[in-house]
Amino acid sequence: MTELVDGLPSPNGLTGPNEYIAALRQLRAWSDLSYRQLARRAEALGEMLPASTTASMLARSSLPRSDVVATFVRACGLDEAAVATWVTARNLLAAASTQPAAAAPVPYDASQPASHGGPVPAMLPADIADFTGREDQVAALHRFLSGATNTDRHHHAPAIATISGMGGIGKTALAVHVAHRLAGTYPDGQLYVNLRGADASPLQSGDVLARFLRALGVPNQVIPADETERAELYRTRLADRCVLLLLDNAATEEQVRPLLPGTARCAVILTSRARLTGIEGARRVDLDVFPPTTAIRLLARITTDERVTTQHAGAAQIVRLCGGLPLAVRVAGARLAARPAWHLGHLATMLGDERRRLDQLTAGDLAVRASLALSYQGLDPTARRLFRLLGLFDLPDFPAWFAAAMLESTLDTGIEYAETLVDAQLLTAADTDVAGQQRYRLHDLVRIFARERAEVEETDESLASALTRGFGGWLALTERMARHIPGPCYAAISGPGPRPPTGWVERHAPSVDPGLWFDAERSALLSLIRQACLLGRDDVAFDLAGCLEKYFDVRGMYSDWVDTNTEVMSACRVAGNLLGEAVMLRGLIDVTTWISDGGDGDAMSRLHDNAFRLLEMFTLLRHEHGICDAAVMCSWALTAAGDHPAAITYATGALQLADQSEHQGGRIRARLALSIALYEQGRFDDAAAGLVHALDEARALDNPRWVATVLQFAGITHRQLDNLEHSQRMLRESLTISRRYGDTYTEVLTLLALARLDLQRGDPAARATAEMSVALSREYRMGHHLAEALAVLGEIELADGFPARAIGHLEESVAIWRTRGWHSMQATALTNLGKAYAQTEPLAARGAFEEAGAILTRLGDTARLAELLPYISTHGTECRQEPMSPRVG
Q1: How many whole angstroms separate alpha carbon 531 and alpha carbon 529?
Q2: For labelling alongside 650, which of 36, 437, 548, 680 has CA 20 to 30 A away?
Q3: What is the DSSP letter of 122?
Q4: In angstroms, rounded to a whole number, what is the distance separating the alpha carbons of residues 408 and 380?
Q5: DSSP 8-state secondary structure symbol assigned to residue 35
Q6: CA-based nearest residue to 644, from 817, 851, 859, 889
Q7: What is the pTM of this model?
């Protein structure tokens, strides 16, 4: 009998194991703690006491281990003296016990439930002490499998949860962790088996049934030979039991079905690299890689020292190179734990060598490569080949058609094999992109493994052919889409890079919006361009980069444009590819002149130098369309410098060359450049006449960006001719087009023209429009527009009688114009600044007027100089002429 002292059970006077176990049960009842609460108490004391261990110990008739007893007694809240008493009593009973004499076998009753004394299996592997993350999944699985969410469970069917994901993602760790938390909910035991689904020879269901039946107390001689009969006996044995099953690493639904219980009192956790979608009613959990913060926490728990905290940058680099894959992070942590003298940066450097990264991610029996190899070996030959070839490309993700290009197959076949890789957890099906395309992605470590297999199993010819097909497929589709993007209408200049015949391009392209397609493929295209540069495929690199220029422009992605063209231009220069270098320089001139400041001296001087350098390059190549485009840029630079006759000469020459070479976009650009030069000379009628032809040709070209551009300059010119209604109609149409395509650059210039129009009419709306122009110019780093917008806002403040506020805007405008180098605009801003100063600081006013006069003298603009001279001495009557700001792509 159990001795009770003040209600507290005592082990003193017990005569056998059964009484000792009964006393332990009474002790747990006295503590009023659940199995899970005892487990948490033990963990707080720095010890491990899984709920399943406690449940198993209190359900059997044999003595538990002494260390388990000690932990259990401490968790119940007793002191060390009581712990020693319980352990001593246990050891005395163990020493006194003897083997019983052999008895006659007891007939076996297959229907005998656990409550009648059957064994309580406790087959779970040990929980992972440093289990980290997955809080949401743990909570959801616990609620579902414990019956807390009754709406998720059918009252006649067992609860089944499947956990799927790629090799090394942590499926088993999560399943075991959840199973231990649930052990107390299933007091009749926990069954576990590794089904070896990723191995060449997975376990047979019949063998697993025999194993489980033995664990449930069925003698070997009673287990049927027939698998169907085994399954029937298995379900019968579980009928009145409350058992949790963990079926780890399953291969197929066929392997799993015979192992599923037939009672709602049982529950099942399945893990598999496949999704096992054929298991009816299962709650599915798909695991992804760890976010950086969780991966770093895991690394810290494994290393158990302060290095991860004190060397955070190194830790972040390690988990990044591990791609957040829990197995890879665990291996890295194990290596660090075994080498406490290592600096984390040392391991990060070792992992940084992509060709040896998988070699470094090996520690003991943990190896990322071996885990991935298991999935790879289970594929059929075509799926293996697709996997290898996909690994050749540095793509963050890709659409379904790319698989077809790799296999040289139909689109349906490519999708079929891509989905096969998804089922094998070697490829991840990403969300549908903004263009409506299904996308896929390879984990970084998986890509490295795929590339290793390609280098071993593919010939050099096969590898070269796959790269050509892949780059060519992207190029063919990108060129097709770029034709329908409104943007710069300079010539589309291509290199000799191969475009393999791809009939699916013609079928795929019409169904996708080109702008959305570029939105979806931007990251992929930038990665391909970078890879092409590294592989010496400069023809592909400049072709793809050239196709992106209109998209970058209309979307305002100026940093991407600069970075991409700079990198590709460097690669072309190294390769001696003058055509590619010239095409990239042409785009760089456009974006760096009108958007960013990017060099010494003023922007217009850089435009002059680069435009004439570009003209020389295309002349050497005898490329007529390129010469035409470069000549237009030369004309703008000369206009900015005030050399209007030379600007007209270059624009006229470009127009003649465009006519000869049938460069339709070149004709529009040349007409606009010519009109700008004429406008700057004050020849507004001539400028307007040229813009009529340019507008007709822009509409015929079906390039909305250029229709909007010509309309805005025509609107500006007609305002100077006092055709105010006509000017407003043109500017409003331009604004509508710009906003339809999200073309902020063209929108801002049109807003500036509308603000000037409203100012001329005395409309108070001018202020709001000018302020909007300033805000957008600042946001998108449009230096040219910002200088002009500030000048307009300054004029408005001056007209409204606020000279002090005007000074602030005009001073900033003048400062920017000094970096821009458009001299007539700088002179206009200085003149208006002088007018504002005249009402507050006469000496400053004289200085502004004199500086404006010096610029006009240098430009030879005698008419405006004559109007300015009275201001220098007397600050007399107002005169103002607005220069036209060109920005054409």
Answers
A1: 5
A2: 548
A3: B
A4: 17
A5: H
A6: 859
A7: 0.71
Secondary structure of residue 268 in the 3-state scheme = strand
Q: Which residues pair with 244 in a beta bridge?
A: 190, 267
The answer to whether residue 409 is domain-embedded is no
**Closest C-alpha to 790, from 820, 827, 829:** 829
The answer to the question of residue 452 being in a domain is: no
Answer yes or no: do 279 and 299 share one domain.
no
CA 643 from chain centre, in angstroms, equals 49
* Gap between the terminal Cα atoms of the chain: 97
Q: Can you tell me the mean pLDDT for 99-104?
A: 36
Helix locations, 77-226, DSSP H: 80-96, 135-145, 171-182, 205-215
Give the phi and the psi of residue 686 in degrees, each rounded to 5. -65, -40
Q: Write out the residue range of the structural domain in which residue 43 sits.
A: 3-96
786 lies in some domain: yes
- The mean per-residue pLDDT over the stretch 513-534 comes to 93
- The residues facing 336 across adjacent strands are none
Tell me, yes or no, whether 363 and 278 share the same domain.
no
Q: What is the pLDDT of residue 683?
A: 93
Q: Is 205 found in the same domain as 305? A: no
Count helices and strands in the chain by DSSP H and E runs: 41, 12
Do 806 and 838 contact (CB within 8 A), yes or no? Answer: no
Write out the two tokens for 736. Answer: 């509508």
Q: What is the pLDDT of residue 610?
A: 95
CA dist 762 → 179, 794, 877 (Å): 78, 15, 19
> Same structural domain for residues 724 and 852?
yes
Q: Same structural domain for residues 854 and 718? A: yes
Question: Which stretch of 712-716, 819-823, 859-863 has the lowest confidence by average pLDDT?
Answer: 859-863
Beta bridge mates, 270: 162, 247
The answer to whether residues 424 and 402 touch, using CB atoms and an 8 Å cutoff, is no
Token pair belonging to 52: 């399943």
Q: What is the CATH number of the domain that holds 193?
A: 3.40.50.300
Of residues 623 and 877, more confidently modeled: 623
Which ranges constitute the DSSP H helices of 391-537? Answer: 401-407, 411-423, 444-457, 460-482, 503-508, 514-534
Residue entry with tokens 């060709």? 355
Same domain? For 835 and 762 the reply is: yes
- Strands of 154-215 (E only): list them: 159-164, 190-194
Tokens of 200: 């060449």
Burial class of residue 334, CB neighbours in 10 A (0-12, 13-18, 19+): middle
Residue given tokens 């194991």 in the structure block? 17
Of 371, 400, 425, at which residue does a domain stop? 371
Residue pair 419/275 in contact (Cβ under 8 Å)? The answer is no
Task: Give 1's Cβ-side CA count (13 Å radius).
Answer: 3
With contact defined as beta carbons under 8 Å apart, do 596 and 558 qualify? yes
Same domain, yes or no: 771 and 837: yes
How far is it, in rounded angstroms, from Cα 424 to Cα 273? 6
**Element containing residue 398 per DSSP (H, E):** strand 398-399
Q: Please name which of 314, 317, 367 lies closest in space to residue 344, comparing C-alpha atoms.
A: 314
Contact 434, 555 (CB under 8 A): no
Q: How far apart are CA 280 and CA 261, in angstroms?
A: 13
- Which CATH number fits the domain that encloses residue 857? 1.25.40.10
Q: Give the end of a domain, one of 46, 65, 96.
A: 96
CB atoms within 10 A of CB 183: 25
